[in-house]
Amino acid sequence: MGVLDSVGTLLAEIANLIADGQRILSLSDKRHWGQDEREQERALDSVLDEARKDFQELGPLVNGRSQYEHDRRHDSMEELRAIRAKFQALTDKLKDWSRSGGPIDPTWVRETYSLKRELHRAQCRAAMRVFTSAREASQRCLGAFIVQRKQRAPTRDAKAGIKPDENTYRRYFADELLACKNVGAFQRFGDQDIAFVCDFCDGHLVWEDIERMPTVRSSTQAVPPGSSDKPVSLLANDSNWQALALSNCGQHQKQIIFAPVAIANHIIPTHGDWEAKLLCPLCEAIGEQPQDEDDDEEPYRPDEEFDDVKSLQEHLEWQHGSSTLPTTTTADNNCCVM
Ligand SMILES: [Zn+2]
Ligand SMILES: [Zn+2]
């Protein structure tokens, strides 16, 4: 133990501790079980399921499973060792309980779920460290990369000759939202804002003054998939990055950046920062196309970073503005909080 720890060995030890807990429960006399014992069993099952799933999914994203498994970066080792100690403590408590009998402590269920969350985030961060070390600084976060991969699904399918029907589109949209939920969580931020906090980099993306996060793009609302000949794209283009939201007090509607578009383009915050910067997906797409050498103008800088969601939105509106002009009303003075 210690010097030769790696992501793989520590995760295996944690999995063994969870399995010990499961075994203790399964060997106890189920005739005396109540709701709490059953919930404890479910909680342990779900930790192990998620840990396994994370391990299987994250490995291939970071240059192959073995790189992730054998990684021994200091921060990842520290985090996983701390979590292992917590699982050890939980298993010890379960052992004591099985010896002394009586009802189980119902607070252990909550403890187990919070350990599940810690373990999930530790795996995300460990994978991200492998992911970023292979690239240059200031790049897209692994969480962003995962969402972007989902957004490429229609293009991938099209190349493979798959013609999407309405159900396929519905699945694309659902998968995109699910990918966002898998890489982080939305939460209220202050009185009026909503933030997305990434599990991988801890970066926050903040949408100011909105009541709820819209779950569909404005373009999809206007032209539902299947009703037009034009294929729907999930990758940001000049007409599909917006979503219609209600301001916090419900006084006016405004166009905001559709959450998955921002999430798929965020950068790991630099040390000490909490807010994630963003890349412009439209500039990036243009940067990937062959450039016209006679073009003197240089309006597109694929490497430009934007400090927050708001400044990326301003850039999108001014630099890539097209048929869909922002409908943000500037008359904020009738807002109920003012
Ligand atoms: Zn991130
Ligand atoms: Zn741009």
Automatic annotation (TrEMBL):
Residues 289-308 are annotated as: Disordered. Residues 299-308 have a biased composition (Basic and acidic residues). This is Fungal N-terminal domain-containing protein.
